[in-house]
Design a protein that fits this description.
Layout (H helix, E strand, L loop, with lengths): L1 H8 L19 H6 L3 H11 L3 E6 L3 H11 L4 E4 L15 E4 L6 H6 L2 E4 L3 E3 L4 E4 L16 E7 L3 E2 L2 H7 L7 E3 L4 E4 L2 E5 L6 E8 L1
Parallel strand pairs: 1-12, 2-3, 2-4, 4-7, 5-8, 7-12
Antiparallel strand pairs: 5-6, 6-9, 10-11
Protein name: LUD domain-containing protein
InterPro entries: FTHF_cligase-like_sf, LUD_dom, NagB/RpiA_transferase-like
């Protein structure tokens, strides 16, 4: 069978087709005009992805984290072992479990949520990307809890996907998150939380 396919292709077989790679590496004029700046556009797109988003100052972050967790009536959360203590400084009545030693999957699934940072964020798509680097922890931390509170620094936000790819190491375990986890099939209604949190909240920190 393969021989017949090769014969049918003739002498041109094996010639790689030209792949256009003229990707847009900056925001389109329309997107740039729609948002006052890149962080603002990111916030708009995050909201369009059915996630909650709030812009806060650096001095408001600890209060915003606490308010978000109190709003969900969280009692126990998990955090990466290197999460800055200052992010949780205003917590009261919420137990934060650091992932050191590694927390087992049952305890992760039973937690009320997880708080992490990110590696980069994309304004064009409202996406946050985690790569297991500082403030992010293991991938499983953001796959099992039903609620993910992600802190994004304004300087981590880029305009487009190619810009984000340029900042990332493809050898690292990359998790791309555009809104709450959801899965759809031809013979099934949409199901949320099958491979990630059902609720995503983003705090954009701007000086």
């Amino acid at each position: 069978m393969l021989r017949r396919v090769r014969e049918a292709l003739g002498g041109a077989r094996g010639a790689p087709p030209e792949v256009p790679r003229r990707y847009e590496r900056r925001l389109s004029a329309e997107d740039a005009a729609a948002g006052a700046d890149v962080p603002a556009l990111f916030g708009e797109r995050v909201a369009e992805n059915r996630a909650a988003v709030r812009h806060v100052g650096a001095d408001e972050l600890a209060t915003a984290v606490a308010a978000a967790l109190w709003g969900r009536e969280a009692k126990q959360i998990v955090v990466p072992a290197d999460l800055p203590f200052g992010w949780l400084a205003e917590l009261d009545g919420v137990r934060a479990m650091a992932d050191r030693p590694a927390i087992d999957v049952d305890a992760l699934a039973a937690a009320d949520g997880v708080v992490t940072g990110c590696a980069v964020a994309i304004a064009e798509t409202g996406t946050v990307v985690l790569d297991g680097g500082p403030t992010q922890g293991r991938r499983v931390l953001t796959l099992l809890p039903a609620y993910h509170l992600c802190v994004v620094q304004a300087e981590q936000i880029v305009g487009t996907v190619p810009e984000a790819v340029g900042r990332l190491d493809p050898a690292r375990p990359l998790t791309w998150i555009s809104g709450p986890s959801a899965a759809y099939g031809a013979d099934m209604p949409g199901a949320e939380g099958m491979h990630g949190p059902r609720h995503l909240e983003v705090l954009v920190v701007e000086d």
